[in-house]
Amino acid sequence: MRLTPFLCLLPCLLAPLPATAEWYREARDMMGTRVSAELWSEDAALGAQALAAVFAEMDEVNRLMNPWDPDSELSGLNSEAYRGPVRVSRALFDVLKRSIEYSELSGGAFDVSFASAGQYYDYRKGVAPGKEVLAEAVSRIDYTYIQLDSEARTVRYAIEGLQVDLGGIAKGYAVDRAIEALLQLGIESAVVSAGGDSRILGNLGDRPRTIGIRHPRKKNDFIVMIPLEDTAISTSGDYERFFIDADGQRVHHILDPSTGRSSGKVQSASVLAEKAIDSDALSTTTFVLGVEKGLALINSLHGVDAIIIDDRGLLHYSSGLLLGAQEDAVP
């Protein structure tokens, strides 16, 4: 009896058949927004592993930096840092450090201590703080009160009552971490999004991925479609969390740190940068600064561009995008 043919056949039967290359997708509600990932893999097991890696990174950032979770590291910091220096994780320290760098760059237009006033808004119930409460809260909005010690990796708040919310930078940071996890697994084409923050890895194989910028007054419409690859894009808009007050004014979550009130200079600001942590922070910054100052800042930065929709609905482009684009009214 010859066993050779059987012995040769058995390993072939046990070996996995090649999986058909395809896109793998998943979306979850987390970090106060919709988080989604789409990636290309030629192996089903790798595709599943890669999606799991994306959401593991998102979960970790949420665990550390969610100000509404009483058990998060940031919530503990907000409760204790005015009493004295608090040692924090490397991730939280690095994001706080980057936040302060953007505060300095923008002259305070970006300031994560805006939450000192932001905590008094309830957009679901349509509640805004009264004048006295707001005035007291604004006195605590000052990024220089957030004192970092790099050697000890500690954070201290110089005054009691200061609150930090990293909503203008943490989602971008989480997106970057997710993309880095995909790169380590060998994924070459993907897009990871967290609300208005996205980072595109590679392309669609034969063409760039097209990303739409939402119309700020027409929920299901896009005003601009941009072909992108290997870049990040973030949009800050006055339509994300808002209510209309008794005076007919739009009260939204992007607060001007100097007043503690909703910034009303523009309707939307989108920023393109290499990494999402930068596009995230800069879209918020540009929104608060407005068209003139915002574009001046963007044009001073290498490899960064912006598209702004002002309070009249007019489109404005940074100098790097002006070729082939002209200022025009949103239809």
Give structural notes.
The chain has 331 residues and is α+β, with helices and mostly antiparallel strands. The chain has an eight-stranded antiparallel beta sheet with strand order 1-2-6-7-10-15-16-17. Strands 3-5-4 form a three-stranded antiparallel beta sheet, with helices on one face. Strands 8-9 form a two-stranded antiparallel ribbon. β8 and β9 form a beta hairpin. α2 packs antiparallel against α7. The longest helix has 22 residues.
Which sequence of SSEs, written as H and E, runs from N to C?
A: HEEHHEHHHEEHEEEEEEEEEEHHEE
How would you state the average pLDDT, rounded? 91
Low-confidence stretches: 1-19
* Helix amount: 25-40%
Q: Which features does this protein show?
A:
17 strands, alpha+beta, 27% strand, single chain, 9 helices, 3-stranded antiparallel β-sheet, 8-stranded antiparallel β-sheet, disordered N terminus, 331 residues, 32% helix
